[in-house]
Design goal:
Two copies of one chain form a homodimer. Chain A is of the alpha+beta class and about 250 residues long. Chain A folds into two domains: about 150 residues, Nucleoside Triphosphate Pyrophosphohydrolase, CATH 3.90.79.10; about 60 residues, Arc Repressor Mutant, subunit A (Orthogonal Bundle), CATH 1.10.10. In chain A, strands 1, 2, 3, 4, 5, 6 and 7 form a seven-stranded mixed beta sheet that branches. At the A-B interface, strand 5 of A face strand 5 of B. Chain A binds a DNA duplex (27 and 27 nucleotides) through helix 5.
DNA sequence: AGAATAGTGTCTATTAGACATTATCGT
DNA sequence: ACGATAATGTCTAATAGACACTATTCT
């Protein structure tokens, strides 16, 4: 089956970003407001065209920086910087009414940021709580996401939920130094469940290489001062942290 | 950031297939021999262009049927037919020296087939043992795979290895009816380890909905007749089957 | 003092891993 | 009889889940 350059139909290739963070105990995704048709005025995931000379991960990192100013450290060493990995590719004909667009979605896990509106670009990116975005039909308080972005977001959230089970990725939602309690609140926000603080503490501190004590303490959560940790070298969590049954 | 059709560079979009099976206790991948430059005479993964009017999964299923005659039942109910899921997308500039090609790789798990050469197309698809293909530099008995296909194959094999841990996907390597011992040999071939037959039996038969007894017995493995099962409705395996440490 | 959070310890039911034993075939 | 594989059972160490208790801060 020989290649013939005149043989292949023209495709546009884009990257879309599922950027997740935990703000005030809630899982939030980065959304932009569409300024034009189709889906004008609705929310969408940030994204854009892949350039002729860049690879897919670079395009995703560039779009992320343009929209939020966040720097990434794609796969591998965590912190400082957001975690980025490829999520999946969406290419149904008709997913964009204007032309054939194949979008390579990426998942970004970012530490909680104080700024209500992450710095930057046009369109006004903002953090939106995930539950409202995923509610069927875009129910209470949520406009429906444009294109097939609700599906992409759902896939990204499910990836994040399952990945923190068996990896140390939850630390990507935390600042460089964090407490056991702060890490637990990340799990609780991403999974939407309450975890036993004592069993959680035993689990994460008992896994070699998962947490590295950094020496100081903090009382930013109130109560007794808590030890500060940073993420350790271990990327795999074995045996995994089990997500409680629903 | 308005869309401008004249704005985006032209991409070719292809699907590549990592088709895995277990033959004679060995994990094998489907390979084709390249008939032209570049990489003429070397092995490559089967694949081809996505057509203008088909989605990505359909393109992968079509290519699979063209190369092997295998039918798929992409995601969801298993058997009869191969399991197909999207793997990842590879789009580095220069991964194909002739033009910018973004390839959406798919993973296919197929039951062991008796025919040495799966039916079909030009190029002569054949089953090749995975270890030789993945050996660094394409060592003993193995030509190096063309393009970045060694990387794609490695990613597909790793996906298969990790997915059978927590899902019932290993049954996709088996015929519609199979024994516990045959299923165990699939795990052993995919992971490359030996498992305890007694503990394995207890694990898989003790997980509700994983295996459904179908009534008959077989002696095709020799020894005492073994009960026949088919894959049950349960797709998740919780707690997971643990891959022994290396 | 009281509320809030951190950190450690205890008990139990479940399970993975190692291994013994019996059952039923083909040769 | 012998070798192969299937199927069930036993024992132990490790662990998840439930929960008691103490420690240290702020208001």
């Amino acid at each position: 089956m020989p290649y013939d350059p005149s043989d292949f139909p023209p495709f546009a290739v884009t990257v879309d970003l599922v950027v997740l963070t935990v703000r005030r105990h809630a899982l939030c995704a980065l959304t932009v407001t569409r300024g034009e048709e189709p889906f004008q005025g609705q929310w969408a995931l940030p994204g854009g065209f892949v350039r002729a000379d860049e690879d897919l991960a670079s395009a995703a990192a560039r779009e992320l920086a343009e929209e939020t100013g966040l720097r990434t450290q794609d796969a591998g060493s965590q912190h400082a910087g957001a975690y980025l990995e490829q999520l999946a590719t969406y290419g149904d004909p008709g997913r964009d009414p204007r032309m054939r667009v194949v979008s390579v979605a990426h998942l970004v896990l970012a530490p909680g940021l104080p700024a209500p509106t992450p710095g930057g670009d046009a369109g006004g990116a903002q953090w939106t709580p995930v539950p409202g975005l995923l509610a069927a039909g875009g129910g209470a308080g949520g406009a429906r996401l444009a294109f097939d972005h609700a599906r992409i977001l759902a896939d990204g959230v499910e990836r994040a939920r399952s990945k923190i089970e068996y990896s140390s990725l939850a630390a990507a939602f935390c600042p460089a130094e964090f407490t056991v309690g702060e890490l637990r609140r990340v799990y609780e926000a991403v999974w939407g469940v309450a975890l036993d603080p004592r069993n959680f503490h035993r689990k994460v501190t008992g896994t070699p290489g998962f947490l590295v004590p950094v020496g100081g303490t903090t009382t930013r959560q109130g109560g007794r001062p808590a030890q500060l940790f940073r993420a350790g070298e271990a990327t795999a969590l074995n045996p995994p942290m089990l997500r409680p049954e629903v």
